[in-house]
Amino acid sequence: MFLLRFALRNPYAVWAAAIGLCLLGLSVVPRIPTDILPDFRTPVVVSYFSYPGLPTNEMEKSVSSRVERALTLAGRMEHQESRTMPGASLIKIFFQPGTDPSSAMNDIVNLEASDMFHLPPGIEYPFTLRSEPANLPVVLAAIHGEGLSETELYKIGYYAVRNKMGGLQGVQIPHPFGGKFRQMMVYVDPVKLQSLHLSAADVVHALKQANLVMAGGNIKIGSTDYLVHPINTLPGTEDIDNVPITTRDGRTIFIKDVGYTKDDAALQYNIVRVNGKRSVYCPLLREPGENTIAVVDRIYEGIGREIPKMKERGDIPAATKVELVNDQSGYIRSAIRNVQYELGIGGVLVVLVVGLTLRRFKPSLAVLMVIPLSILIGMLGFYFSGNNINVMTLGGIALAIGAVVNASIVVVENIVRHLDMGKNGTDAARDGASEVAPAVLAGTVTTLAVFIPIIFLTGMIRYLFEPMALAAVLTIGASYVVAMTVVPAFCSRLMTKGRKASSQDPQDKPKNQTETSGLINRLLQFSMRFRVPLIAAVVVLVGCSYLLYDRIGTELFPAVDAGTFELRVKTTPGTRLEETEKLVERIEQTIEEVIPENEIRNIISNIGLPVGKGAGFSTVLSPNTGPDTAFLITNLKQAGRTTSSLEYVERLRGVLKERFPQEQFLFVTGGIINATLNKGVPVPINVQVSAGTVAKCRTAAEKVVRKIQDIPGAVDVQIGQALDYPQLDIKVDRDPGLIDGADAARHRRKRRDCAFIECRHRAHDLGGSQNRRRFLYWCSVRKQRNGVAGSAPQSAVIRQHSQRSYHRTSVKRCED
């Protein structure tokens, strides 16, 4: 009643407040972040450890497991997940909802820094970054150009595109995928090394000593203070060739005596193909909490503005083309647009029903103005509570549209009734609204009470439906306030006369009221006359519905045709990168045969996994584990497409299984929605097997796979890890008896440097018995005996053993 009295005493103040809230709501709506799903508010920190060449089992025991134990000291941590591969360890740390992201990041960085002392010597410092449960790029910047080499493409992505796009608000851009990292390569002949009684470690040591960056300070000469610049770096191949390794009997041995230097590229571990051509792409991510659509718009604007400028300045070749592909915002825009369209249809239907029921312009206007007012006030609540606009919040508003006008319809209808009794506008508004105020309040509270149980939900369900409930509650609550303030103020000033004077005779009522009442009376009479048949019909319908219940599938979210799908490929463990690329090329041709050319926008293939230099945070974004794995992203055109992406996936699954029976395929559909709902996991169902040892786990997992494959509807059932990856064990005999006592430790370090660090690169090119023998020569070590340099026999230093080992380990939380 207080609201009503205030509104009738100050109608113009109420109108001014309503207009002010409308304008304020319109101004904040563009500032509210827009995304496909609500922000889960679960801080995630990702750490990447790199030690190229270290096998998976050693990486897991010496790095992943040790770091995970150290990170248990982090405050408010929920759980950890890790993925270990040869030379790389990815650790995801999930924190409890509501944890301050900056505090979580600070804890992880400090704990990792304190644990570095216990990690293997020479390991790179970890790369740590804030992330999200589903850390997916919002768009990919594909770089290509006629006549440009892969080295040039990588340089453009690494220095030009990455530097320019990284400065945009809300954008994160890690290292590029694909291409070749430019590097001075020293190719050494192991036979020449052996003949000169040298090892690879000697070459590495010489290069390190000759290529130094040092501070020279300054020097004062006379009245001038000079900066001293020691030039100790090696600018070109000729300078590197002339680096001395050692001196023997007055003769200096240079690098050119045992090999040669070439301005080349680092060994390639990752290949990217865009529409069948080798290319490079930069993944662009949005920062947590940013507006996805706004971020993508900034990226498009930045690419369109900066690339032509860089061409004009000569920073990049004129043939460079940067194309934005795999745009995730397109589906988000479409989904938001569809929900807005449905919301608009609901509003139009409400307008029609109100107009047909009241059949008066001003009363209908009084009811309909409640809809935009309530929605805009609700948006203000969303803005100040830190929520975003998504399909769930828009669904909550659409759900509340009918309830929004209920209170105003009751109030307006009663005010009109009092006006028809001959009262003036103010009296009719006061009497009409006060009579129904308790009923309107009870109805509103009852509707809002339906959403109370949502606050007791937990996990993913709460994150999804809490924003929807909040949207409905804010909108319905705002509609009650508007119905008890703005509507009476509107009616008291603009509705001053009724259609007919007061009369108790039903014949004297307005025509619309007579027709409506007559229709309701006839329906009631019909229902009372045929009570038994109507009740029987209701019981039969309910019974039939119950029988159909078990035949209706159950799903949190329906299948989504996002217009894109991802195909993950695993071939024979240990397959070389070049062979995997040939396989991917044949798979691309198969996709083009199954899907019409006019419906394919682009096919992006990512083969292998970047490691070491040039990898960085990009490794986190790739599901690949090595040169024998790849993934292909197929983007379809939306316009003119008659077949859904899900149907094409079913066709491809059968064709690929028939043409490539030895390979394993995993289709990932649903785009960003499924990735978010699954917290970054590619499939909704994951079975975790724990049996003590790897061998026991493998046996149990194979049994589980056979059981699940027999379940109807289960597809792409496979073991995620490669358990038969070929591995060549090189055992170095560390018996100090081969080396004179005082130098034992030094020679142990030299063996480690040679066999553990340098061979990891050369081994990439091995194949066949001849290369294996050369590999052993390359790993040979020196010894000192009585001051004379010599080479220990290989049989006394190195033993080799070939075996099969697991290539990746995954430690994840298992949720029921």
Report on this model:
This protein is α+β, with helices and mostly antiparallel strands. The protein folds into five domains: 2-31 and 332-498, Multidrug efflux transporter AcrB transmembrane domain (Multidrug efflux transporter AcrB transmembrane fold), CATH 1.20.1640; 44-181 and 284-316, Multidrug efflux transporter AcrB pore domain (Alpha-Beta Plaits), CATH 3.30.70; 186-265, Multidrug efflux transporter AcrB TolC docking domain, DN and DC subdomains (2-Layer Sandwich); 564-723, Multidrug efflux transporter AcrB pore domain (Alpha-Beta Plaits, 2-Layer Sandwich); 726-810, no CATH class. The protein is built from 25 helices and 25 strands. The strands form seven sheets. Strands 5, 6, 7, 14, 15, 16, 17, 18, 19 and 20 form a ten-stranded antiparallel beta sheet that branches. Strands 4-1-3-2-25 form a five-stranded antiparallel beta sheet. A two-stranded antiparallel ribbon has the order 8-13. Strand 22 and strand 23 (788-791) form a beta hairpin. Helix 1 (2-9) crosses helix 2, helix 2 (11-28) runs antiparallel to helix 15 (459-494) and helix 5 crosses helix 9 (292-313). The protein is elongated and about 125 Å long. The protein starts with a helix and ends in a 5-residue tail after the last strand. The model is unreliable at 501-507, 739-745 and 747-796 (pLDDT under 50). One of its GO terms (cellular component) is plasma membrane. GO terms for molecular function: xenobiotic transmembrane transporter activity. Residues 801-816 have a biased composition (Basic residues). The chain crosses the membrane at residues 12-32, 339-358, 365-385, 391-416, 436-456, 468-491, 530-549.
